[in-house]
Input
Amino acid sequence: MSRIVSVLLGTAIAAGCAGRTPAPAAAPDAAPPVAAKPMPPIPDLSRMRTFRRPIPGVPTQTTGLTQPVLQRMGDLKYPPRAWDQGLQGWAVYDFVVGTNGRVDPRYVRLVATSDSIFVRPAGDAVRAARFTPGSRAGTPVPMLVRLPVSFTIDTAPKPAQRSGR
Output
């Protein structure tokens, strides 16, 4: 049975903060129109499997492997509707990081989410992420990674308002 390799990225990637310097304190007009709802906890997902069959080229044993390291996360966009409601949440994805450090789009799977509104923006950010690839004895190998993506209002910039809607 293939084990899912977890990549520890501090605690989780907060909306709008990945790969950037922290934004200055938010101006009063940048706050959502309602009070932020508490962040739902991420349950233990360690036994959940999203890939039922082995993935070609991905090692099934973790001995002697160097884990992929996140270099930069894709642009994480807070959903405007969630912002307006003060909704915070998360989405957890499993995916394969290829030998080139890019996420293989054929192997991106949603594991769980606190609210379906976060699925698309988290998935887009994961697909655009770049890693230093995992390796075995110095040779890059594709690796399976599980990554939680968090959306928190206190660290996110106000989403751009869409015109015409």
Observations:
- The two ends are 48 Å apart (CA to CA).
- Helices lie at 80-85, 119-127.
- The beta strands are 5-6, 13-14, 65-66, 69-72, 89-97, 103-113, 130-132, 135-136, 139-140, 143-151.
